[in-house]
Amino acid sequence: MRFGLAAGAALACATFLLGGCSAVEQVTNKGGDTTCGEFNGHDDAKQRSEISKMLKDSKGSEPSNLELSGTQVAVSAFCKTIGKDGDKINRAML
Fold it and tell me: What is the DSSP letter of 62?
């Protein structure tokens, strides 16, 4: 009985903590306001998430995978060439 109660409590805590991660991601994802310095320091998944939010904010709808990939390449090229660390990634779309 005690083991079942402890396992249930642990499962509830884990569910809460894992669910909180996506909420934190949504709050910390600045989309187009992400700077090149931040963008260059993020892994591929985080970069795609930021690009996706930027495109959703500008278009109002989910971007296609092709649009998402193409925009990620363009932003990455911008940030690694003419973009400064403090430039926002939405400047790559001008």
Answer: P
